[in-house]
Every structure is written in C-alpha cells, then in structure tokens.
Design brief:
Blueprint (H helix, E strand, L loop, with lengths): L1 H29 L6 H7 L7 H4 L3 H26 L4 H9 L2 H5 L6 H10 L3 H22 L9 H18 L4 H16 L7 H7 L2
C-alpha cells in the first residue's frame, strides 16, 4: 500500500510538471483567456478531470505556468551569454531582437507574449512577471554598469523597455520588412552600433 501511494504521488508530480511544461507554451501562444481547461489538459495528454487534482484553479495554473515560462526565458538569456560572454548585452539583444524570436511565440519571452494578459489579472498572476522583470533589469544593470540609488537607472529601464516594446510591435504587424526594421533600429538604439549578426540567434531558436 505504501509503495502504491508513493508511486501515485510520484505520478501526480510528474503529471503536474507535464502540465506546467506544456501549458506555459500554450499560454504564450494563445493567451491566458484564449484557451480553456479542456484544451490545456489535452495538450498535456491528460483529461480535464485530472486538472483539479493538480491545481486549485485556472489562476493557480496560470501563476505556476508563468513562473515556469520565466525560467525558460532565463535559460535563453543564459545560453546567449554563454555563446558570447565577452559582450553579454550584445548577445542577448541579438537573439531577443531577431526575426527568429518574433516567430517563436510559444517559446519566446513570456513578458512579450503575456504582459497584456497579466495586466488584466490580479496581484498573484502579476507577481511572477514582476519578479522576472526585476531580474532582467538587475542583469542588464550588471552588464552596462549602471546603478541609480536602490533601483535600476534610466538606461537599464530604457533598454528592457525597448527590447520588449520592439518585439511586441514587430509581432503586431504583417509586414515582415517593417518588422525587421523595427527590430534592427531598436538593436542599434540600445547598442549604439550596427545590428549583430543573426547567426547566434538562429542557433538559439532551432528546436
């Protein structure tokens, strides 16, 4: 009996991780309100009835999946830095402000994909986004060596805002030429130099 209970708990934990890994991507693609519980669970290969064994509510799932999506974004940044440690900001900007990132809605930055949805939710849903944004601001501040009092300075704020805003604008239009131009000019405004090659970005977005 004890062994069976342990296996059951382990399976429940495995199911929960499967749901989180799948649904964080589905939310990024379709939005928090763009997909229902049935399809969310179907995407994870589970039934809707299994949902309430794993989560208290859809908002509970959203909070946990958002945290998972933020961690995935962190790994993307870390991979970019590892590829070009001598100039980490340029490396992150190169992959973030790329047409590859524009196309990767499911696996792209959750701040870009879901900040509008999070703005219409309560404090619990906003919390993982705030934590992720603060972490990005701190990292950018370390790279550019700017600090202002107890919080991020002007250039740090402007850098992240430009990155996120440019990607959101580029996804909101059909014209790929204009989208590319938005990303290129945003990159130049941040780095004060011509855009980096897309070669590193392409490697990061290959699935």
């Amino acid at each position: 009996m004890e062994t069976a209970m342990r296996v059951s708990r382990e399976q429940a934990e495995e199911n929960q991780q499967t749901v989180l890994n799948t649904d964080c991507r589905l939310f990024c693609e379709q939005g928090f309100d763009g997909i229902g519980l049935k399809d969310l669970m179907k995407g994870a290969g589970l039934t809707q009835g299994a949902f309430y064994k794993q989560f208290a509510s859809k908002d509970d799932l959203i909070v946990q999946a958002s945290g998972r999506a933020m961690k995935s974004g962190d790994r993307r940044w870390a991979s970019a830095v590892e590829a070009q440690p001598e100039d980490p900001l340029a490396s992150v900007v190169a992959f973030y402000l790329s047409m590859e990132h524009r196309a990767q809605r499911m696996d792209g930055c959750p701040i870009v994909a879901l900040s509008g949805d999070a703005a219409r939710k309560g404090a619990e849903v906003k919390a993982p986004f705030e934590a992720g944004i603060r972490a990005y601001l701190e990292q950018i501040g370390d790279w550019i060596g700017e600090s202002e009092g107890d919080g991020p300075g002007l250039k740090v704020m402007a850098t992240l805002s430009t990155m996120v805003g440019a990607m959101m604008l580029s996804r909101a239009i059909n014209d790929e030429g204009l989208s590319r131009q938005i990303l290129e000019f945003a990159s130049q405004s941040i780095l004060n130099r011509p855009r980096c090659t897309d070669a590193a970005a392409e490697k990061l977005w290959v699935q």
